[in-house]
């Protein structure tokens, strides 16, 4: 399903350029493949302090930050907040275990400032990966890099 027809192309196509640049650094795509890839994403404008993920709800989206900043954190039993991740422009953020396994999230993800993100929902991501193995390769490479980064921290 394509979201492109539902958005303001002049403004929002500019929002897609950072994602396009991000993708083509990692895999080689034709122009048609790039168009297909971004057609599965939608643009979301998020206000400062707005949550995009909350515990006990299944994360609907994998989120790419075009503009702004986000904080992922958990709340301990004592009520103390523990930051798990920050995401700024050209980073991805979600509750990955919740998203990948379609289980309730264990953390909050909140905008630290007004932000623009590109979102792909789980079903669309599965369809995208089935449509072209290059997309699956890109997402696998990205996921492995994320896990490696977490182990180093």
Structure description:
The chain has helices at residues 9-24, 31-39, 96-101, 122-131, 133-152; strands spanning 42-46, 51-53, 61-67, 70-75, 81-87, 92-93, 108-111, 115-121. The radius of gyration is 15 Å and the shape is globular. A four-stranded antiparallel beta sheet has the order 1-8-3-6. A four-stranded antiparallel beta sheet has the order 2-7-4-5, with no helix packed on it. Residues 1-11 have low confidence and may be disordered. Helix 4 packs across helix 5. It is α+β, with helices and mostly antiparallel strands.
Shape: globular
Helix segment tally: 5
Strand order of the largest sheet: 1-8-3-6
Multimeric organization: single chain
Q: Separation of termini?
A: 37 Å
SSE order in H/E notation? HHEEEEEEHEEHH
- The average pLDDT is 86
Concise summary:
With 153 residues, the chain is of the alpha+beta class. It has five helices and eight strands; from the N terminus they run ααββββββαββαα.
